[in-house]
Amino acid sequence: MNNPDNPQKPSNWFEALNCAIEGIIYAFKTQKHIRYHYVIALVVLFLSLFFNLSLIEFVLFAIAVIILLAAEMFNTAIEETVNLVEERHHILAKNAKDVSAGAVLISSMAVLLMGYVVFSRYIYGPATGVLISAERFALHISVISLLSVLIAVVAAKAYFGKGTPLRGGLPSGHAALSFSVWTCITLLSKEPYVSVLTFVLALMVSHSRLLKGIHTKFEIVMGAVLGAGLTFLIYYVFSMILR
Asked: What global pTM score does this model have?
């Protein structure tokens, strides 16, 4: 391993490979966003096996994920270089970091777009078929779902002893209700574009709670999982009963 106080240029391909692996390990250890992306990439790649993607779909999605991870590492490299050259706050240093972060954001959007194109036909088809029988009672089921999510949030906060029904504590009530609404609209409209737009709105509502310091990321994620999961479960159970 190279001494950080006295770095040496790799003398052969094996040492160069070792340096590259050390760079990956360093980025993984020091950058939480890279860790998140690695975990998400691993989960999604396992999902690709579950949905039995075609070879072309798998390759295209894998390339998109690899580009995102590479962009994250380039972003880390640029930040480290800028910090080495300019320790003080400087507008040019900020611009360099912002541009590199923007590249990561664009790569993330590309992965989301590719994931939507690849997985949408595997998700919307079965969900639409299962829930078609519940259309006559759609409004009734939606009201029951929203009330059930609200009751579940209150019960969870009472159990954990923190927060009020819609402020603070585990889970986030705003995230739970907004993702419940997103799930209802997705299942009722069966329109991918409407689903994407309402998903973005649910994310914005949840993110506002994080920005205000009312909830932690974990509380928001758990709220989103509770809201979407319970709503889908209620729709699924009703669709089975009404068949």
From this structure: 0.51
